[in-house]
Design brief:
The structure is a single chain. The chain folds into two domains: 2-123 and 303-343, Nucleotidyltransferase, domain 5 (2-Layer Sandwich), CATH 3.30.420; 136-300, Nucleotidyltransferase, domain 5 (2-Layer Sandwich), CATH 3.30.420. Helix content is 42%, strand content 19%. The chain has helices spanning 33-37, 44-66, 85-102, 111-117, 168-178, 185-193, 216-228, 236-265, 280-289, 309-322, 324-328, and strands spanning 2-7, 12-19, 23-31, 75-81, 106-110, 136-141, 146-153, 156-162, 269-273, 295-297. A five-stranded mixed sheet has the order 3-2-1-4-5, sandwiched between helices. Strands 8-7-6-9-10 form a five-stranded mixed sheet, sandwiched between helices. The radius of gyration is 20 Å and the shape is globular.
Length: 344
Amino acid sequence: MLILGIETSCDETSVAVVENGRILRSNVIFSQIEMHRKTGGVVPEVAAREHIIKIIPVIEEALLKANCSMSDLDAIAFTYGPGLMTSLLTGINTAITLGKVLKIPLIPVNHIEGHMYANWIITNSNESTPEPQFPLVVLTASGGHNELILWKNHGEYKFLGATLDDAAGEAFDKVARLLGLPYPGGPQISKAAEKGDGSRYNLPRAWVTKFDFSFSGLKTAVLRLVENHSEQLKDEQFINDVSASFQESVVEVLAKKLAKAAIKFGVKEAHLAGGVSANKRLREKARETLPTNVALKFCTDLTLCTDNAAMIAAAGFYRYQANSEKYKTWKPVEGNPNLALKNW
């Protein structure tokens, strides 16, 4: 079964073709990073306009790389939310139009659910990867969300916790801006942290409730630290040490909460997903913190950590398998599509 995936939730226009929910045939991503770097963050109106310009060329390239045509497609999966509403509309309307023309099922996919399925995708670099084993716990961490979920089976989730204010990825971006590092901040902080001392500054860890997260206080602590040492902002070692100290605070909280959930529910696998899962130190900390009998899974292909259509196609396949009759007659539903997985 070939599924065309469409992802336009933020500033990446992505289209992919995935076979039987796992085999990657193509995954084309047009990124707007260089454009939004000028403003230090995503401008929704600019992102929406670029999606309109790029969506058709990206579809054509994805089909070409997958060595298939429109007539070979069995269904179309698309991101329905959460995300920037003006960006989402391009992907949603494109999917609906193609579905009507081709007379094939439309499968709406929650963006966060898509990130969770990224670890299922088989690429040339992980051809021998077995399917994940349920039940498992998954931590999704990105610029707009943090969620900790007990994943019982396809379509069966127990929501454990989420961020109460700012997501980890957003905190990385804001701290990078405070330190004068370019956008996007996550890779820049990680790079600087490799040359820094993570124990130099004792930054706070917000443990809050058992499985929830909070990073607004940490951002404020870094702001106060920078204000009190503003004369050192031209000192590369100061920037490296603040980056390392900040990163340690974030990854310690994320890793310990993931480990706590794995122990509580007695799972054999723990997954990292979302853009922040590409952070090398988070992967190391999670492995150090998890019990030895719990396997840690994450995407070795970093393009599958960030927003991409392959994960949407993979999630769409399993959602369709679970309830195919529903999507043979699917129509847009009333209400706000900009929903978190908790309400999906």
